[in-house]
Amino acid sequence: MRLDTTSSSAVVEGDPTDDELLGMLRRMIEIRGFEDEIQRAFTKNLVRGSTHLCNGQEACAVGACSALRPGDSMVCTYRGHGAVLAMGASLERTFAEILGRETGLCRGKGGSMHLTDVEVGAYGSFAIVGAHLPIATGLALAARLDRTEAVSLCFFGDGSTNIGAVHEALNLAGIWRLPVVFFCENNLYGEYSPLPSTTPVEQLADRAAGYGMPGVRVDGNDVVAVRRVVAEAVARARAGEGPTFVEGLTYRHRGHSRTDPAKYRPAGELERWLEHDPIPRLEALLAERGVAAAAIAQARADAESAVAEGYAAALAASAPAVELIHEDVYA
Ligand SMILES: Cc1ncc(C[n+]2csc(CCOP(=O)(O)OP(=O)(O)O)c2C)c(N)n1
Ligand SMILES: [Mg+2]
């Protein structure tokens, strides 16, 4: 596993153009700013329930989702703000959802752990660990039956791989060769437990062999590397060659949830990972490719103002009317 502070500068066929990379940088900075704003809002008691931030994991979300096309689907976890934004959800409506405003993605009734925006292909964030892998497999089966050629992308954590439903979902996808990409964000911890204390294999991608699908491990903080691996998996899925298990090695900068100060992490670990922060790495790559410093600075400025505007608009919106409680429910 390569873990350096630079990102692969040699351009490979199918790689994003400089302009696309600038767009990806902007989205990654937006996600980082979004999460920082949510943390501040949480400490002001503006966020009900819990919240799980993805600071540090932006390259997984943006790199993987950039390999999809309209009509494809994505499902993710409670640590899914970044994935939903990477699919193209509006900053304002995502903020509004987490702040419990009527203008939110789910009219403010879902909150941080249930972000859903079917219009952009985001078919849900799930708080029950591992419960959404069968949904990703189901979305892929639906695409097969409807002959849409759509691909389903599923984000989940390292800790999820020990859940029973995950085994069933991977097995069914494997036996039916369904068009799904399983993207495991290995951030080294499941809640407060380091991976080696719960999981008897070092490389989670090795588990793919048991389901008859390729398993690939990638530097999850290198957005270009993530995009390449997922683009290849998506192409295989679309061509009818079945699922892939991708393991992106990454790190969450913050604790597991809300106020967790993450004291269980060994001294120096966070600092080492900050040297591999995916955002400065992408900025350095762009500079190395000859993109003007002004264009990089502009992407940052655009991202920061979009976050500020989205947050202000969401904050100004009202809470859902109480009558809405009976809408969008089955019975
Ligand atoms: C079925 C189930 N068991 C336990 C929990 C409590 N829980 C919430 S998050 C979490 C850790 C999951 O870790 P991982 O899959 O690595 O995801 P990460 O939080 O690191 O993104 C646990 C055990 C839960 N939500 N659902
Ligand atoms: Mg984890």
TrEMBL record:
Its EC number is 1.2.4.1. Gene3D superfamilies: 3.40.50.970. Its cofactor is thiamine diphosphate. CDD domains: TPP_E1_PDC_ADC_BCADC (cd02000). GO terms for biological process: pyruvate decarboxylation to acetyl-CoA. One of its GO terms (molecular function) is magnesium ion binding. Residues 27-319 form the Dehydrogenase E1 component domain. InterPro entries: DH_E1, PDH_E1_Alpha_Subunit, THDP-binding. Keywords: Oxidoreductase, Pyruvate, Thiamine pyrophosphate. The keyword Oxidoreductase applies. The keyword Oxidoreductase applies. This is Pyruvate dehydrogenase E1 component alpha subunit. It comes from Conexibacter arvalis.
